[in-house]
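Researcher: I'm comparing several assemblies side by side, and this is the next one on my list. It has 563 residues spread over two chains. Same procedure as the others: predict the full complex and return the structure.
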Amino acid sequence: MTILDVRGISKRFGGLQALSDVTFSVGEGQIVGLIGPNGAGKTTFFSTLVGLIKPDRGSVALEGRPIVGLKPHRVAAYGMTKTFQNVALFGDSTVLDNVLTAGLLRHDVAAARHEARRCLDRVGLLAIAGKQADTLSFPERARVELARALCTGPKVLLLDEVMAALNPVEMREIMELIRSLRDDGITLLVVEHHMRAIMAVCDRILVLNFGKLLADGTPKEIASHPEVIEAYLGQSMEKHR
Amino acid sequence: MTRWMIGLGALAAALLLPLSLDPQGYWIRVLTFTFLFAAMAQAWNIVGGLANQTSLGHAAFFGIGAYTSTVLLIKFGISPWIGMIAAAGLGAVAAFAIAIPTMRLQGHYFALATLAFGEVLRVVANVWTSVTGGASGISVPFSPPSVANYSFKLLRPHAYIALAALVIVTIIFEAIRRSAMGYRLRAIKENPAAAEVIGIDTTKVKLQAAIISGMLMAMLGTLYAQVAVFFDPDTVFSAGSVSIRVALIAILGGIGTPAGPILGAFFIIPLEELMNDWFSASAAGLSQLTFGLILIVVILWRPRGFVTLFKSLSARPGGAPA
């Protein structure tokens, strides 16, 4: 069943065509990777999906409901949220309070606290729940971002480089977490630069280049797609696997 | 638990303090204004502290409150207690009207825009003589002393009413801080975009906070009118001695904390009075200069406010287990 349907999304910033005519749909419970060179429009695209940026043209439907033009908090209430690539935690608050705040979307304070602890446990950060957010290391903060997004109770979760700066062990943990979220019925869109990780975890990969959808296929298809190799990698994918 | 002990101790001291002062004297007046300004700074703290929107226009609501009850009393003989409720209504309307255009502004731009609103109301009150009496000011007419008339022979009841107002506003502030709204306001303060993305209706929450804050400020304006008995537009709509002073009290004490405005008010208001007392005879200008110097030293010494002197009083977001 289609959960997210994107039709002809275009966005222009001055002289830059950031997104042009992006069209695809995602089935429920898929893990979809979104890759592309720096500046390809991945983060802009995520921001457009959640309502932070209004597209010039095109439509987005979440579970059949049109969401273009809705404010981000409405989109979150409908069940789609994202993490921030450059990490946007509430730095003065504790880790627990960061996550708890997201839980307030669907719970009162006490229930949100309980839910927040559950989400922190899931990303393996329950032990540092009482720490102030801006004292954490970057990988920890990225995980708090993930827990916070999770605590909104999403149906579709957009992860913008949550694996950046992780060591191989931590990366494996996050990949397992992503799979387990999918097993819980959450649909995931994942932007990631680490090829091996994205090839391993995704059912399907979309390639953006200069704001255009260049390719759409299974990891295997993408890895051998000549245009992708030329645009994005400039060399054979085989070396990265 | 120690926080509760300190709070109860301070309250007991505050209850005893008016009894120990000459009921007709100068210092009970200073104490009454200290309570009142602490309450005003606490009302400001809802917007200025929790959402970190530094309003420099809260005199707008304060002046509206002072004039609303006084004009209702003069023209219709309505008790200031009822007038205070009307003041709350008008304060809420004004807060809504000011919040709509300024809400999207941040930092200095928000501060300047709110400052301008306060000044506009000051000018309006000066020229709208048929209602406000204009620049020559307005007197609260004498009513036979009684609680129902909000009229007293001595200052002592006023001191207790101001104290009660401070306690109520502080409870409201603390209830907001610990509630879902408090978490949402802190999220907006830290990162508005992230707050929206995780499901917070930032516009609505900011609007709610602004209305509650403006409403309380207007009600405190009524209290002020009853204590001051005479006032003019330049006093109650003053940018310097209301808007900025209230912000200063909260900032000096520690914004976003329930104890901050109280500590700030108990520092600033008596200090100002002492300065005036000491220097007025010898060199009038010196009091302002010394006051300014003390403020600079204090803000450099404790940039996050006096609350940082007492770790247990400082902002630990509501109920988070340590």
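Model: For your comparison table: The beta strands of chain A are 2-13, 16-27, 31-35, 57-62, 65-66, 80-82, 156-160, 187-191, 204-209, 212-217.
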